[in-house]
Amino acid sequence: LKKVVGPDELRKMADDMSPLTKNIAFVPTQDEKIAYSQIVTTTQKSLVESGLEFAISPVDIYAPDAGTTKNITIRIGLTSHTKTLTGDEAAVVIGKVITATMQATDATII
């Protein structure tokens, strides 16, 4: 037997699907002056402009005991509830996030 799925069930199934995710590792050039919260705040501002639902979570904050380099890695999840989000569309949003965050924090990505 095949079941006919209505629009409400399709929407629920889509909501249950995993979002597109991307990990981004930022390396602040001014290690002591850039905090995780600054990276996240700038990232959030860029993502709000995208109109997509998003989630940001920490992956890693690494600073060696005997060094000056600090890496801040975040995971961004993107979801659209109005259409299927393509990899190319997600790449454009992530590109804008990277550019805005690099400009605001003077960080590079690895």
Would you write up a description of this structure?
By secondary structure, the chain is α+β, with helices and mostly antiparallel strands. Helix content is 40%, strand content 28%. The protein has a four-stranded antiparallel β-sheet with strand order 2-3-1-4, covered by helices on one side. Strand 2 (53-62) and strand 3 form a beta hairpin. It is elongated. The mean pLDDT is 83.
How far apart the termini lie comes to 51 Å
Helix content: 40-55%
Write down the oligomeric state. Answer: single chain
Profile the largest sheet: 4 strands, antiparallel
Helices and strands: which structural class? alpha+beta
What is the radius of gyration computed over CA atoms, rounded to a whole number of angstroms? 17 Å
β-strand percent reads 25-35%
Average pLDDT, all residues: 83
What is the count of β-strands?
4
Q: Looking at the structure, what is the overall shape?
A: elongated
How many alpha or pi helices? 3
Order of helices and strands: HEHEEHE
Strand order of the biggest β-sheet:
2-3-1-4
Low-confidence stretches: none
Protein traits:
110 residues, alpha+beta, four-stranded antiparallel sheet, 3 helices, 40% helix, elongated
Précis, in short:
The protein has helices at residues 7-16, 36-50, 87-105, and strands spanning 20-28, 53-62, 71-79, 107-109. It is of the alpha+beta class and 110 residues long. A four-stranded antiparallel β-sheet has the order 2-3-1-4, covered by helices on one side.
